[in-house]
């Protein structure tokens, strides 16, 4: 099973939130719950747990928010169909992670702070690296630190567990070495094009999500 000390959450993007919710429920057999809005990104999301401290985020444009000048992250504005587009790694001392990554040839961008209210009234706060930076087609993660906030997975619908995350890229050896330099011990498979495939144990058995 993939370590929850590494993977914070998976990002499944969709052109429209309801279609993303329906797709995930069809594949995993569990209905995600709506999370919140991201005014800076022009998006909203829905979430379900994949472990005690790991979850799946379904993210899509929010029709009630304006499109940001730089567009929405993860290429959502031109996404033809729902798919797994990226993932978030757990991290602390994010500024140091950014500095180490830059030394290795990848710019993770500036570290920013965000927050949102949960349905129970609790406020989640986090620090994360820039979602807009190019990261080898999403194979290299962005990093998030929840600090003293409770992890979102604790209050999400359960029934699924992330068993394995497959990373594929034409420059597999370079990507794997880069991840190792940041303390992420994950195997990267050589493939003709980049891809993320999650093995998830569901109430109906083991499924693949990509």
Order of helices and strands: EHEEEEHEEEEHEEE
Q: Could you describe the largest sheet, including whether it forms a barrel?
A: 8 strands, mixed
CATH class: Alpha Beta
Can you tell me the overall shape?
A: globular
Give, in spatial order, the strands making up the sheet with the most strands: 2-3-4-1-5-8-7-6
Mean pLDDT: 92
CATH architecture: Roll
What percentage of amino acids are in beta strands?
35-45%
Give me the number of helical elements: 3
Which fold does the CATH topology refer to?
2,3-Dihydroxybiphenyl 1,2-Dioxygenase, domain 1
Label the structural class.
alpha+beta
The whole-angstrom Rg is 16 Å
**Any low-confidence stretches, pLDDT <50, length ≥5?**
none
Tally of distinct domains? 1
Relevant CATH superfamily = 2,3-Dihydroxybiphenyl 1,2-Dioxygenase, domain 1
Total beta-strand segments: 12
Notes on the structure:
- This protein has 210 residues and is of the alpha+beta class.
- The chain has one domain: 2,3-Dihydroxybiphenyl 1,2-Dioxygenase, domain 1 (Roll), CATH 3.10.180.
- Helices cover 15% and strands 36% of the residues.
- The chain contains 3 helices and 12 strands.
- The strands form 2 sheets. An 8-stranded mixed beta sheet has the order 2-3-4-1-5-8-7-6, covered by helices on one side.
Give me a quick take on this structure.
This protein is α+β, with helices and mostly antiparallel strands and 210 residues long.
